[in-house]
Each structure stands twice: as C-alpha cells, then as structure tokens.
Write a structure and sequence with these properties.
The protein is α/β, with parallel strands linked by helices. It contains ten helices and seven strands.
Length: 306
C-alpha cells in the first residue's frame, strides 16, 4: 500500500505541483485508523480491537515518509513546495495538577493522540509511553510480541525528518485522570491508554455532543507541539464549531464567540518565542548594559584617583 500511495502522490505532484505548493499527505490519520480499524464506524468498517488501528497507522506513517522522500528527491528543486501531515488532537488537562498520576495520564493522552504520528516523524519512533504500555499489556495477554508494530533501524532513519511543517487540527479539551484497565479485558486502544476523559459542565456546549468551547486548551496544545517537536512551522488545518440550533435565519453569535476565543489564543505569543526573545535580545542587552556601567564606574574611579 505504501508503494501505491507513493505512485498516487507522484501523480499529484506531477499534475498539480506547478500550482500547489503546500501538500498534506494525510489529514487526521488517527481518526482514519481508529474509526476504520478499531470501532468500524468508518470505512473499511473493521473491528480489529487493539491491533488493526496500530497496523494501519504503521503503514500510514511509512506511506507518508515515502511520499515526502519522493517529493524531496524529484520535485522540490523545481516546484519549491512543502510536504507535511495534518494531525487532529484535543488538549488533555490533568484533573488534579498536583497529582503525578493525573499529570502522567494527561501526558499519555497526548502521546497516544498527537505523538502516535508526530513522534516517528520528528524523533524516529513511537512515543515511549505507547511502546511501554502496549508492550506490557500485550505480554499480559499472552502475546509473544507487542501489538504495536516495530520500525526497523532503517525505517526509523527513513521516517525521521519527513516533515516541512506540522499540520494541526484542534477543536476542544478534555480533563484527564488515571484509570487502570486490566489486561484481561482484552486488546483495546481505549484500554491501552489507562485513562478517563472528562468535561467541565461549565464549558459552553456546541452543536455536537463531544464539542465544548475551551479556548485556553488550544494555546496549551500549540505550546506542547512547539516544545515537543523542536519548534516546527505549525499550520492550523482544522478548527470550528458545528451548528448549535436549527435556524431559519443567520444566528452565529455563539460560533463567532468560539472562533474569536480560539483565534485569540493562537495569536498570543508562543512560549518558545518568549524564551527565544530572552535568549537573543534580553540577555545580550543586559550584558551590554553591565559592561557599559562597569566602564563608566571605572572611568569615574580613575578620575577620582587622579
């Protein structure tokens, strides 16, 4: 399948590359894998619990890398475009920020969501939290190997760095708390994570049952992605709110409020930019001022002695 996808990608590069300069190989592959191979809600409608989605994701990542390398070696020099993947993820906030187990569970939530696909592309392998958790549960379930596939050393090297930007889709936030699911319950993506997702009843609810307006979670996810993956260019690919009420006329005040809140969070100065500003501007400026002050004091001291 990776070869077929590469053929398709090259056909698109050749046909449209003179006009298209931004390429997204896969959009929201996590949902594609989970809904297609775990729950069966999307095509191809398979329910291969705790196995199918990991295999599908494994091949999606390899297909992406092959398409990126094809563009990089054949088309980039003449077309000057960029190739990346778009990943959807909600923000996971610990229920109790003073509870190490909740903090770890929230981190694990993000790794099973965003890190599942981003970590191989930016670091060359699946997140350690996924490898440890799925490997342990697989062993407890009597399997000789982990249900999470393994990249060879050659594949890790081939996949790492295959991104010119990080596409990010984000809509809402969840509170996360630790919950252990016994391995005897059987293979399951949800059980592998050992956590529970909760919502605050005070969060404004929107048109879809799962969707709540939590703008501050957007900024935290952006900061997480920025620091976790080495400050890559980030393009927000998906965001918005479904219709809340059936309206015969325009009634979008609630959607305007949602978009305004999320856009304002996105426009706030990123954490790394503050750190970079301190490193590149504030520190040299302070050092320069210290040198000047020391020179002036020395000059006055020499004059007073003379």
């Amino acid at each position: 399948m990776t070869n077929y996808f590469s053929d398709y990608a090259n056909l698109c590069f050749e046909a449209f590359g003179d006009r298209v300069k931004y390429w997204v190989t896969f959009s929201d592959p996590r949902t594609m894998a989970e809904k297609g191979y775990e729950t069966g809600h999307h095509a191809p409608g398979l329910k291969l619990h705790g196995t199918g989605l990991y295999k599908a994701a494994h091949h999606i990542i390899k297909a992406h890398a092959q398409a990126w390398h094809s563009y990089n070696s054949t088309w980039r020099s003449r077309q000057q475009g960029l190739v990346g993947m778009s990943l959807n993820c909600d923000w996971g906030e610990p229920v109790d920020t003073n509870n190490p187990k909740d903090i770890e569970a929230a981190e694990r939530y993000l790794q099973f969501c965003l890190g599942w696909f981003a970590n191989p592309i930016y670091a060359g392998d699946y997140p350690q939290a996924m490898k440890e958790r799925i490997g342990r549960k697989s062993a407890e379930q009597g399997l000789d190997v982990s249900r999470l596939p393994v990249f060879s050393l050659q594949e890790k090297s081939y996949i790492k760095g295959t991104s010119d930007f990080l596409g990010l889709g984000h809509f809402t936030t969840r509170y996360i708390t630790e919950r252990s699911y016994p391995s005897r319950l059987g293979p399951s993506y949800q059980n592998d994570r050992d956590l529970v997702e909760l919502v605050d009843p005070n969060w404004p609810d929107l048109g879809s049952q799962w969707l709540h307006s939590v703008p501050w979670g957007f900024r935290r996810l952006l900061n997480f992605a920025q620091t976790q993956y080495g400050d890559p260019p980030i393009y927000v690919m998906e965001n918005g709110a479904s219709q809340k009420l059936h309206c015969t006329q325009l009634c979008d005040k609630w959607r305007i409020k949602y978009l305004k809140g999320y856009i304002n969070e996105m426009l706030k100065e990123p954490l790394l930019s503050h750190m970079q500003m301190v490193t590149e501007i504030v520190v040299p400026t302070v050092c320069t001022l210290c040198v000047l002050i020391a020179a002036v004091l020395l000059m006055f001291l020499l004059r007073s002695q003379s």
